[in-house]
Amino acid sequence: MGWGPGWPMARPGMAVGLLGGSFDPAHAGHAHLSRAALARFGLDAVWWLVSPGNPLKSSGPAPMAQRMERARAVMDHPRVVITDLEAHMGVRHTARTLRALVACYPGVRFVWLMGADNMATLHRWEDWQEILHTMPVGVVARPGDRLAALTSPAARAFHAARVGSDTTRGLAHRPTPAWAFVNLPLRPESSTALRESGAWPQNDP
Ligand SMILES: Nc1ncnc2c1ncn2[C@@H]1O[C@H](COP(=O)(O)OP(=O)(O)OP(=O)(O)O)[C@@H](O)[C@H]1O
Ligand SMILES: O=C(O)c1ccc[n+]([C@@H]2O[C@H](COP(=O)([O-])O)[C@@H](O)[C@H]2O)c1
């Protein structure tokens, strides 16, 4: 598996945040998280990894082309790149994705980004400890999930690796394991709410 045509460019030393997600559909909460991550973690770019399908979700998302189109409409920012790299690589488990990207982009300082809800369940992901050893992790507050994230099995297991809130800007350059939690003005948007409201096509059966 190697770097391919159409993949985003990144120079060694660049700090790049990776926001994996179902984006079914993308919404203003994702855009808010991305802008905040650029500022709070001192990132040069954020790449959205629009997932072929969350390994823990039983029903598949809407077709990739539809989700990519919506993502591009929601997030039009010079430093945010919308990608379907996991589909190209044929992977959907994050540990495998991160392994591949680190190998394909030597010298690039990646940070895995996620909302607090995902930090709360990280211990159920494949090779989740490896994720924390592969790159620093930046977690962004989400309504209702702050406490669950900060008391989660992953947070407890990696308690000593938590970076203070005053030093999050250099997160990408920290030795691993390192993770940071940032409290932002919370955004209530969720893809579930949009699907339930009928504003987004139902999943394929
Ligand atoms: N409003 C939000 N605030 C902070 N983080 C968010 C927000 N919405 C989504 N995220 C984060 O963005 C990433 C991708 O989210 P995802 O595509 O699953 O959207 P979602 O709204 O959580 O979807 P669903 O409701 O289907 O679970 C996840 O890490 C998630 O925690
Ligand atoms: O690797 C795993 O086992 C794993 C389990 C659950 C979720 N993830 C990833 O977490 C990201 C957020 O997923 P979602 O569905 O909450 O948007 C997305 O990139 C998923 O592939 C990964």
TrEMBL record:
Keywords on this record? ATP-binding, NAD, Nucleotide-binding, Nucleotidyltransferase, Pyridine nucleotide biosynthesis, Transferase
The protein's enzyme class: transferase
The UniProt gene name for this protein comes to nadD
State the name under which the record lists this protein: Probable nicotinate-nucleotide adenylyltransferase
Question: What reaction is this protein's catalytic activity?
Answer: nicotinate beta-D-ribonucleotide + ATP + H(+) = deamido-NAD(+) + diphosphate
Keyword Nucleotide-binding set for record: yes
Q: Which Pfam families match?
A: CTP_transf_like
Task: Give the UniProt family note.
Answer: Belongs to the NadD family.
Copy the pathway line from the protein's UniProt record: Cofactor biosynthesis; NAD(+) biosynthesis; deamido-NAD(+) from nicotinate D-ribonucleotide: step 1/1
Molecular function via GO: ATP binding; nicotinate-nucleotide adenylyltransferase activity
Q: Which GO terms describe its biological process?
A: NAD+ biosynthetic process
User: What Gene3D superfamilies does this protein's entry cite?
Assistant: HUPs (3.40.50.620)
Q: What EC number(s) does the entry state?
A: 2.7.7.18
HAMAP family on file: NaMN_adenylyltr
Superkingdom of source: Bacteria
- Its job: Catalyzes the reversible adenylation of nicotinate mononucleotide (NaMN) to nicotinic acid adenine dinucleotide (NaAD).
The Cytidyltransferase-like domain covers which part of the protein? 18-196
